[in-house]
Amino acid sequence: MKSRDFVIKNEYNYLDIILSSLIFLLSYFIFWRMYSIQGDISSHLDMIERNPMIITYNSIMRLLVYTFGFARTDLMFCSFPFILSLSVVIKYLTIRFIINDFCNIEGLTEFISDKMLILGSIAISFAAPVFSFLNFYSNSYYRGFFSTSIWHNPTTIVMLPFSLLLFWFSYKFIFIKDEKFKNFLLIVIFSFINLFTKPAFLMPFLPTFLIFLFFNIFHNRKILTKRSAVILIVLLFVSAVFIFFGIFLFSKLVSFKNINISPIVTIGLHNRNYDISSLSIYFSNLIFNTNFDNTILIYLLFIFIWILKFVFANAFSLSTFFCLNKKTSMLYLYSAICFILSLAIFLFISEKGSRANDGNFSWQIVPCEIIMMITSFNVLLYDKFKNKKLDNFDFVSVVCFGLLFVQLYDGLIYIQKLIFEGVIY
Question: Which among 42, 16, 22, 9 has a CA at the least distance from the CA of 85?
Answer without folding.
Answer: 22
